[in-house]
Amino acid sequence: MKVLVAVKRVVDYNVKVRLNEAGEPDTASVKMSINPFDEIATECAVQLKEKGIASEVVAVTIGAQKSLDTLRVAMAMGADRGIHVVSEALIQPLQVAKILQKIVEKENPDLVIVGKQAIDNDANQVGQMLATYCNIPQASFASKLEITDSSEALVTREVDGGVQTVAVKLPAVVTADLRLAEPRYVTLPNMMKAKKKPVETIDVSSLGIDTAHRLKPVSYSMPKKEKNGQILGSVAELINKLQTEAKVL
């Protein structure tokens, strides 16, 4: 079984993005890292290989030359090889799905695992659109994945009403939720080994996909600052505040 995982280079989740003088998000000098949900997807794929279920894990990323660092992280976690679709321009979700469709057609994987969303746009669209373009089943928001045999997978999903388990025929697209796997720590020796693993480079222009943006931001703004809380000394003081300032009593 071959497993394909998609990873994206995003602003690190610990970084608080601010606006620059032009009123746009300033990402030029902030720390970047692998998208957390994609990291979970990669861990899940590597675990399938360690269990003897998967024979090969292929990681693919789309982005500028610096995205190769993200690909190396996926390979340091255990992916066997990488595919880097080079694009200096930002690629939006619809085009990402179309590009990944080309990679799926080329690699013919038995299972595709992607993060449920990227934390830079929270779009939650690529997995669903990819399954549609490839005309294969999908199971989104997976918190558990079991391969029953070479032709079917059981996916546990956390939904509003509780937990749902669905069976999907393979090949299929699965989008990873937070509880699908606990990503391993990437050690320096494994990062050094990852540099020796093969990476195929594909220029996005060679895929024949229109990468023009369909979505345009209207404006950006920082979240409004909330008022600081107050520590009161007595119940009487609390009641007085509710009567005079909040006017709820």
UniProtKB/TrEMBL annotation:
Coiled coil: none annotated. Keywords: Electron transport, Transport. This is Electron transfer flavoprotein subunit beta. It holds the Pfam family ETF. SMART domains: ETF (SM00893). InterPro entries: ET-Flavoprotein_bsu_CS (IPR000049), ETF_a/b_N (IPR014730), ETF_b (IPR012255), ETF_beta_N (IPR033948), Rossmann-like_a/b/a_fold (IPR014729). Belongs to the ETF beta-subunit/FixA family. Residues 22-211 form the Electron transfer flavoprotein alpha/beta-subunit N-terminal domain. The keyword Nucleotide-binding does not apply. PROSITE patterns: ETF_BETA. The keyword Electron transport applies.
